[in-house]
């Protein structure tokens, strides 16, 4: 069966670990167009290539509409070509803050932007990428979700990955008010080989399971610097709501459709 023929909408096909969980939310969909030209990955989303791509809906709370709307806007857009999946994100942020500089650190301990991809559409062998406002990256792969006992493999790398961020404001400076940051990503299809024996670009009409997440911490100023408000959990804002605080439910992600 082709991955695009799988139907995670069918409640009878829920993974065993899902059957006792809160019901999933309405699944969002995005159609990615082919990029008309090659372009530099520099974090600038005003370049001509991105004008052809539609923005996603604004991100919502990970649990869905029963929770308050996020206080800062987040949205994303995608393009693709024969070699890469391109992702752009725009994050409104009045307090630009990041601390982690080491590759494969646990980036969601800072505010971050996250990408989740399941090309096989079966909830297995999926990819995760996290980026903070310093441009520090954590890329990892999971053979199966944590609820199925799947450990994350942080030794795995997206070979040829290109990322860039641009800041509209000043990082780690609590004396002013910032406007936000943008993220630009190019993921080579050739690097996504965990789910298939023959890594390749998708074909027109294919679809993958996809989600985006933004982790946002409440901050305060202490001795002239930002720090997390003690004993306060993070906010989880996502493109396609999960129905509960767990991004590692791939069968609840949204659909990414590849179009001409």
Give a nutshell description of this structure.
With 260 residues, this protein is mainly β.
Mean pLDDT: 93
CATH class reads: Mainly Beta
**How far is it from the N-terminal to the C-terminal residue, by CA?**
23 Å
SS-based class: mainly beta
Proportion in β-strands: 25-35%
Number of helices: 0
How would you name the oligomeric state of the polypeptide chains in this document?
single chain
SSE arrangement, N to C? EEEEEEEEEEEEEEE
Shape annotation: globular
The total tally of domains equals 1
Helix % is under 10%
Q: Give Rg in angstroms.
A: 18 Å
CATH fold type: Immunoglobulin-like
CATH-scheme architecture: Sandwich
DSSP strand count: 15
Low-confidence stretches: 1-6
Largest sheet properties: 13 strands, mixed
Protein name: Carbohydrate-binding domain-containing protein
Organism: Engelhardtia mirabilis
GO molecular function, one term: carbohydrate binding
GO biological process, one term: carbohydrate catabolic process
């Amino acid at each position: 069966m082709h991955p695009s023929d799988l139907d995670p909408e069918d409640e009878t096909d829920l993974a065993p670990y899902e059957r006792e969980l809160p019901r999933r939310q309405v699944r969002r969909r995005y159609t990615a167009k082919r990029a008309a030209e090659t372009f530099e990955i520099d974090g600038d989303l005003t370049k001509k290539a991105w004008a052809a791509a539609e923005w996603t809906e604004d991100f919502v709370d990970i649990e869905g509409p029963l929770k308050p709307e996020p206080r800062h806007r987040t949205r994303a857009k995608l393009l693709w070509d024969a070699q890469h999946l391109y992702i752009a994100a725009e994050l409104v942020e009045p307090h630009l803050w990041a601390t982690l500089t080491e590759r494969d650190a646990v980036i969601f301990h800072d505010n971050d932007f996250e990408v989740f991809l399941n090309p096989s559409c079966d909830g297995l062998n999926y990819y995760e990428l996290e980026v903070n406002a310093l441009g520090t990256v954590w890329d990892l792969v999971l053979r199966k979700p944590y609820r199925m006992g799947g450990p994350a493999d942080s030794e795995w790398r997206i070979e040829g990955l290109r990322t860039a961020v641009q800041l509209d404001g000043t990082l780690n400076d609590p004396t002013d008010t910032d406007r936000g940051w943008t993220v630009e990503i190019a993921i080579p299809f050739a690097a996504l080989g965990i789910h298939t024996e023959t890594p390749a670009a998708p074909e027109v009409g294919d679809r993958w399971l996809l989600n985006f997440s933004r982790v946002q911490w409440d901050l305060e100023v202490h001795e002239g610097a930002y720090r997390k408000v003690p004993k306060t959990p993070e906010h989880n804002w996502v493109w396609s709501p999960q129905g509960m605080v767990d991004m590692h439910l791939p069968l609840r992600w949204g659909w990414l459709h590849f179009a001409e």
